[in-house]
Design a protein that fits this description.
The chain is built from ten helices and 13 strands. By secondary structure, it is of the alpha/beta class. It has one domain: Ribokinase (UDP-N-acetylmuramoyl-L-alanine:D-glutamate ligase, 3-Layer(aba) Sandwich), CATH 3.40.1190.20.
């Protein structure tokens, strides 16, 4: 099966540790790591770990973009970088070794020019063939229209593509204008889609099923953080709890969850197993430190814990 991921706002993720977070002091960093990051990039990386062939499409600008590209090449991923003028953004995660608390700093992405947007549309149209799985994941730079993903979906309508969208804010709201195969909001995002600040468990289930009934999506997977997730579908609602593990970092856990679900979809699994694989890969990523994602060993460990 042809699987393509798209990340228009990727990041070069840096992580490090410090002995203690103290204001106004020059703090010495150690255990420094660099990883390629951003929604679709992370999904592609975990799919690669799962042995699923896929093409990772991402914007690539400046020295940071070249570093990100090189990191993906070293991981032996199939990549399609789209050159852009502005430098690829950087994110920083710092762990205070004294408290074991993690501090995450996310930098905004720059916008794309009209010609760069056209290149992205043309590239995805070429790579996303009939009956592909196409995963649109990650944020949209603030300066871009929240309808960008909708326009992209429009251009692929005739191809019978399984569209998976994992974004947030106005871009997520905008995506409701189209029918997608799968969406993965968290509890807060689901409430926003319903036009509320908070939803009870019953309201969450009802609104997720409403999205299914109104044909906004075939599957709605709602992340419940440490409590797992639930999946709404025409077959009903399924819950999957998480096993008890030592959480080292939550960076990339949501993206890993999407990768697990795509793996299960590609294998033709049931809705219940699609959800299970999502939770397995999400939890496996939390077991790694810094910006590292799920390893084969951690995935196997979580699978055994859920048996």
């Amino acid at each position: 099966m042809n699987i393509v991921t798209l990340t228009i706002n990727p990041a070069l993720d840096k992580s490090a540790k410090i002995d203690q977070l103290i204001p106004e002091q020059k703090l010495k960093c150690h255990a420094i790591q660099y990883q390629a990051g951003g929604g679709g990039v992370n999904i592609s990386r975990v799919l690669h770990t799962l042995g699923v062939k896929n093409n990772c499409v991402f914007t690539c600008g400046g020295d940071t973009g070249q570093t990100l590209k090189r990191l993906l090449e070293e991981e032996k991923l199939d990549i399609t970088p789209v050159s852009v003028t502005d430098w690829t953004r950087e994110n920083l995660a710092i762990v205070d070794a004294k408290t074991d608390l993690q501090y995450r700093f996310g930098m905004p992405g720059k916008g794309l020019s009209d010609s760069e947007v056209e290149v992205i549309k043309n590239t995805t149209n070429k790579l996303v063939t009939e009956n592909s799985i196409f995963i649109i994941s990650g944020s949209i730079p603030d300066s871009m229209s929240p309808d960008f993903y909708v326009e992209l979906i429009d251009s692929l309508t005739a191809k019978n593509v399984k569209l998976i969208i994992d974004t947030s804010g106005e871009a997520l709201k905008s995506s409701l204008k189209k029918t997608v195969f799968l969406m993965k909001p968290n509890q807060g995002e689901l409430a926003q889609l319903a036009g509320k600040d908070f939803l009870t468990k019953t309201e969450q289930e009802a609104f997720a099923m409403e999205l299914i009934t109104n044909k906004r999506a075939q599957y709605v997977i709602v992340s419940l953080g440490a409590r797992g997730a639930f999946l709404a579908s025409a077959q009903g609602i399924f819950y999957q709890t998480t096993p008890s593990v030592k959480v080292k970092s939550t960076i990339g856990a949501g993206d890993s969850m999407v990768a697990g679900m795509v793996y299960a979809i590609a294998q033709g699994h049931s809705p219940k197993d699609i959800l299970k694989w999502g939770v397995v890969c999400g939890v496996a990523t939390t077991m790694t430190g810094g910006t590292n994602l799920a390893s084969k060993e951690n995935i196997q460990t979580v699978l055994e814990l859920l048996h």
